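Marked as duplicate of an earlier ticket. Keeping the data here for the record.
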Amino acid sequence: MRVLTRVLFSSLLFTSVPAMAQSKAKSGERKASAISSAATPSAAKTTASKPALVVIAAQNGATGAVGLLAPLPRVYAPVKPRDAAPKYPWRQNITSTIFWIGEPPSQNNPTPNHASSWEMEWQLKYGGYDDPNKNNRTWDFRPKAFIPGLNPFYIALPFNDITNPKVAKRIPWYTTRKQAGARSVCRGVWIAIRSGTKTCFAQWEDCGPFTTNDAAYVFEGKPPITKNNNSAGIDISPAIRDFLGISSGAKVDWRFCSDSEVPDGPWKRYGQNNTLLPDSVRNNDEVRKRYEELVRQREEWLKSRGQKPLVGVPQ
């Protein structure tokens, strides 16, 4: 009897386990079906929203693992590449003085500035007197009387490579500029000048103040050797003065910089010597000069025959 009872119990047990498993499976299917049914509207909404998400992503930025990313800027790279870090060090706390093309000689400036150390016809090629009077200058820092033929953003530093050829060979860019055919490897080099939060850019076009052989200061970072004008170490033009909002005697920082480091600004607007002026502008100026010369020759020819000129040079 006991044996029979055990057999019946074992039979019932093995019969119940598959049944229970099947019952649980069906229950699980019913739950999954219920969950699936409950999730269907939400899933449909998600599916329907995908095209809109693509549109938003296209407008506002790419879609990343954590959602929408910030939109890319419209300009992906600067017009000119910039160096990652300054190649040349800053010369700090240097006394600046103001000078200008056409400046007459004075007690503080015994050398007249109608010519520079590298250009005997400096004032002529510039187009006239670079009037330092602020009332006689335009919003873009040039003289009102004429459009300058050279860059109005110019400076002088106390070294002349033409008169110091042995020292000049140690200038970092000497080989590159000499191979390009430059008579002076210093003339036209770009300089950054900083005062407070403002930074201006200009070209090296003359030598001074007071001396032209201070290579240790200009290229090695030593203090200026001159003691005049509170050890002045850089001459700056009226355009630089007005852009920085300083006066003669102000302390500034300056350093050499490559063409690629020079950002857009008024220093890119004028001048045949301006290495950053578009070729089309320089070419137009050359065409105009040739045309003016032809007009002049024609007028001289007409005068030699006793005839009056037909037209003048267009302004």
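See parent ticket for discussion. Residues 258 and 274 are 13 Å apart (CA to CA).
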